[in-house]
UniProtKB/TrEMBL annotation:
Protein name, entry field: E3 ubiquitin-protein ligase listerin
The reaction(s) this protein catalyses: S-ubiquitinyl-[E2 ubiquitin-conjugating enzyme]-L-cysteine + [acceptor protein]-L-lysine = [E2 ubiquitin-conjugating enzyme]-L-cysteine + N(6)-ubiquitinyl-[acceptor protein]-L-lysine
InterPro entries given in the database record: ARM-like, LTN1/Rkr1, Ltn1_N
Subunit-level organization: Component of the ribosome quality control complex (RQC).
The organism's place on the tree of life at top rank: Eukaryota
Enzymatic class: transferase
Function noted in UniProt: E3 ubiquitin-protein ligase. Component of the ribosome quality control complex (RQC), a ribosome-associated complex that mediates ubiquitination and extraction of incompletely synthesized nascent chains for proteasomal degradation.
Keyword Nucleus listed: no
Annotated family: Belongs to the LTN1 family.
An annotated GO cellular component: cytosol
EC code: 2.3.2.27
């Protein structure tokens, strides 16, 4: 059973140390097809040190405009697959900057690559919707802004939520009933 944990200020918080952190041990998509600078960023996203993850995700955000325009066609699917594979883990990261930035990135990816992201959305949608209810306002606003960016009309947002509601409810039930702190987190990230 998952027990709530407290953040540094003593309040219960989503993403606080000891709280849910989705299987860090799961293998990430092969990033060898990506350019070397992207490979470095993806390696940084998987590091234990929160500062390294923050730096990597901020680098990705800063270069996102150029990246979305200049990404070679052969690198699009590996990039989308690798990022969407890491998204569930990063969306519930301890650091709020990581959580806020990955929501922004997933919104940009869904908007830019529409159908190429659909395959991974079933796994990512529950964490995106959890982000909408994050205890940190900047994170919940980033998730909401990303949803608006990816799905500009309220009808499309409602359709997104309906389409992935079964996946979201299923994942929440799985997290609540079947998982515990040791099965949700990688020992490298325990303090």
């Amino acid at each position: 059973m998952v027990t709530p944990s407290k953040n540094q200020s003593g309040q219960f918080a989503f993403g606080a140390p000891g709280a849910l952190s989705n299987s860090f041990g799961t293998p990430v998509h092969n990033v060898s097809a990506l350019e070397p600078d992207l490979q470095v960023i993806f390696k940084g996203l998987q590091k234990r040190d929160a500062t390294t993850r923050v730096k990597a995700v901020e680098d990705l955000v800063q270069n996102s405009g150029k990246l979305l325009e200049d990404l070679p066609e052969a690198s699009v699917d590996p990039f989308v697959g690798a990022f969407m594979g890491l998204y569930p883990t990063l969306a519930i990261d301890v650091d709020r900057k990581v959580r806020a930035n990955v929501h922004a990135i997933v919104g940009m990816l869904v908007r830019a690559y529409k159908k190429r992201t659909v395959r991974q959305l079933a796994d990512c949608a529950p964490y995106w919707q959890l982000g909408l209810h994050d205890s940190d306002r900047t994170v919940s606003k980033a998730a909401a802004d990303a949803l608006t960016m990816a799905f500009p009309t309220s009808e499309k947002q409602t359709e997104f939520k309906k389409l992935f509601s079964v996946a979201t409810v299923g994942r929440c039930i799985e997290l609540a009933l079947d998982e515990d702190a040791s099965s949700l987190s990688d020992s490298r990230f325990r303090y």
